Amino acid sequence: MLYTSQTRHIHMPQLPELDQPHFNEVDAARQYLECLRWGSRLVCPHCAAVEGHYRLRGKSHRAGLWKCHACRAQFTVTVGTVFECSKVPLNLWLQAIYLLCSSGNVVSARDLQRAVGVTYKTAWFMALCIRRAARSRRSSRRLSLRGA
Fold first, then answer.
1. 45 contact partners, CB below 8 Å, separation of at least 6
2. What is the distance between the alpha carbons of residues 21 and 24, in angstroms, rounded to a whole number?
3. Regarding beta strands 53-55 and 74-75, do their DSSP bridges make them parallel or antiparallel, or are they unpaired?
4. pLDDT tens-digit map of 71-84
């Protein structure tokens, strides 16, 4: 039997879990990651200071931007993670991670493209970053967002 694109395609159903706000809204995804990474204890990823942080607000600052009083560096929840320096919205990253981790089969970049709604190049890059982070012990901690 010849393989065609239809026989190799893994059907990605619409999962009810993906209806949660952190999979659909960027701000909800950021708040979800802040809860996972920091909980009630905010830690500066630059100097590891635990106290003296303040949120930067206003039109000139993006949402979720913090400043450390000790080292005066600005940071967000994405600093030191696979999401850092990415223009892909956080909610799409969370969708991709969920789909790659919850699927019993190998998810191709083409399947991820269809499910998440990004270009093939972006889906390939996201899958590569997620798989590398999951494979590496050091990056696995970054992917799980536990600690700084």
1. 75, 79, 80, 148
2. 5
3. unpaired
4. 999 999 889 888 88
Measured between alpha carbons, how far apart are the two ends of the chain, in Å? 51
**DSSP single-letter state for residue 58:** S
At CB < 8 A and 24+ separation, what contacts does 133-140 make? 133/82, 134/101, 139/82
- Per-residue pLDDT of 44-60, as tens digits, reads 888 888 888 888 888 88
Distance (Å, whole) CA 80 – CA 78: 6
Scan for tokens 């694109």, then name that residue: 5
pLDDT tens-digit map of 82-105: 888 889 999 999 999 888 888 767
User: Where in the chain are the domains?
Assistant: 22-144
- The β-bridge partners of 53 are 68
